[in-house]
Design brief:
Blueprint: H1 4-15, E1 19-25, E2 36-42, E3 55-60, H2 63-68, E4 73-82, H3 102-108, E5 112-116, H4 118-125, E6 134-139, E7 147-152, E8 157-161, E9 175-181, E10 184-189, E11 193-198, E12 218-219, H5 227-230, E13 237-241, E14 244-247, H6 249-256, H7 259-263, E15 267-271, E16 274-278, H8 285-288, E17 296-300, E18 303-304, H9 308-317, E19 323-330, E20 333-341
Parallel strand pairs: 3-4, 4-5, 12-20, 14-20
Antiparallel strand pairs: 1-2, 6-7, 7-8, 9-10, 10-11, 13-14, 15-16, 16-17, 17-18, 17-19, 19-20
């Protein structure tokens, strides 16, 4: 259940004079899991948790989730199903058939089942968001290879798309990228036609045109320690050598669990030999690992960073690494930083 629904239910109950409590579990949604919420209201509520088999109403925004959580509903209780069908991320791409006739099956178990097309209702209300799309930023190039960085907030999947490409992280309908501009993208939905989406307020994310190559790189020793680097201690990362850092696993999990946290933390300009970083936010993952404004990142774990899409996937993969290296250029000199994750 989306978090807005339980909030609305609690406020309504309180205004009607009831005591109301809610609880929700949504952390797993960042990895393709469900958002599950419990709401209870009565003259006096002592706990928000509803025991299995005692819920009066179940609202499911996807049919299969309604089937999954039906055991929480009492005999004769009501189950409201959105007619949308979405394959769970855990089995996406596997040869598994989506269950048929979910509503009749539940009705046969003694539940009162109501099916609604929430997408059609939203379209009629003029606020269609069934195919949720968030524009995180745009990488503007002089040629035809400009890229729109798009996120599906339902499962937090992020990918980059060029003009003419289908946004494959949206499965509820066909969405195609038509035109990419500075922090604006024209998309075409199969159901409602063309519309323009804009960057969220995430700071300066969209890049300008690519700058000239950063020039010849010459090997150099690590840059001198600065107060900003010294302050990294006790922030989940410590500098243990001239070019060596120790990173806590907890920090890495925290900052990399949501791809949005990566793309919004700096302004990135593609170069011929890597990605140049500007506008790095304090306490961002880049700041914490010692990257500075003007640095050009060439490789992570020897994987060349020749576009933003690849960089996003490489950063996400760091969550499972016990150590990694970053090759970059600063002020014309090449450096390699080593990181141990503990």
């Amino acid at each position: 259940m989306a978090t807005g629904i339980p909030n609305f239910a609690v406020r309504t109950a309180i205004r009607a004079g009831f005591d109301a409590k809610k609880t929700e579990v949504h952390g797993a949604a960042q990895r393709g899991g469900s958002v599950v919420s419990h709401v209870r209201y009565a003259p006096k509520v002592y706990s928000p948790l509803i025991p299995a088999g005692e819920a009066d109403i179940l609202v499911s925004l996807e049919k299969l989730e309604g089937l999954r959580w039906a055991h929480y509903v009492r005999a004769g209780g009501t189950i409201t199903l959105n007619t949308e069908e979405r394959v769970p991320a855990s089995i996406d791409g596997k040869p598994v058939e989506y269950p048929k006739e979910i509503a009749p099956f539940l009705a046969g178990k003694g539940f009162i089942v109501r099916s609604i097309d929430a997408q059609a209702i939203a379209i009629e209300l003029g606020n269609y968001r069934a195919a949720n799309i968030v524009l995180l930023g745009t990488i503007i190039n002089n040629d035809a290879s400009s890229v729109a960085i798009i996120k599906n907030p339902d499962d937090n999947k992020v990918n980059g798309y060029r003009s003419g490409e289908v946004v494959d992280i949206i499965r509820s309908e066909d969405v195609k990228v038509i035109e990419i501009m500075n922090c604006r993208v024209v998309i075409e939905r199969q159901r409602t036609g063309r519309e323009t989406i804009k960057c969220k307020d995430l700071g300066e994310i969209a890049s300008t045109s690519p700058a000239a190559p950063s020039g010849r790189r010459t090997p150099g020793r690590g840059p001198k320690s600065e107060s900003s680097e010294g302050s990294l201690d006790n922030e989940g990362i410590s500098k243990v050598g001239e070019n060596e850092y120790e990173v806590s696993r907890e920090l890495l999990e925290d900052v990399l669990s949501d791809p949005t946290n990566i793309i919004q933390q700096a302004r990135v300009i593609p170069q011929e030999d890597g990605l140049r970083f500007f506008g790095i936010r304090s306490n961002s993952i880049f700041w914490k690992i010692g990257i500075k404004n003007g640095d050009t990142l060439h490789k992570i774990n020897n994987v060349e960073l020749n576009d933003v899409e690849k960089a996003l996937s490489v950063f996400e993969e760091l969550r499972s690494q016990s150590n990694f290296t970053i090759d970059f250029t600063r002020a014309g000199k090449q450096y390699t930083y080593e990181y141990n994750v503990k």
